[in-house]
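Bench notes, afternoon.
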Amino acid sequence: MNHVIRAARADEWPKAKELRLVALQDPAAPVAFLDSHEDAVQQPDSFWQERSARATAQPGAPAGQFIAEAPDGSWAGSVTLLIEDAGTTDFGGAAVKEAQGLVVGVFVRPEHRGTGLIGKLIGAALDWAWSVEEPRLARVLLHVHPENLRAQGAYRRIGFEPTGVTVRFEPHSSVEELELAITRPED
């Protein structure tokens, strides 16, 4: 299937909501996401509208959501890249020493897995990350559950490497997730 990989727009929040709710029902959701379907389905439309507005991949935006759009307009998958500024605290509570990106919310519908979409989606997120001029990102990282071997393999094929850091996202998990990163390519 020929998908268009592109940044999501703020007005597409209903599709973003629908895909996120599907993702949270996936069997891998408990080890892949820090959210539950039960909590997410309770959120008002304003939550989804604000979430989509923040992730427009525009200059100065704090995040970018990238989607794989099928010819029929449906979304086959999505990834989001958050910008973390130096001097702030990251998702796991650690100090951010230099500006970086954080890949979150990675999901491809089961019927589209194994087609290379994950690489294309993360590739679009990385292209945007490296194009951000302020702050200039030194690296992009992600966290993955140690038992999620399929995801680890996909991320390593893309070029992410283990940093040796583990992160515990309390109170969501008693498991320390593995941190993988890819450094900014030389200009």
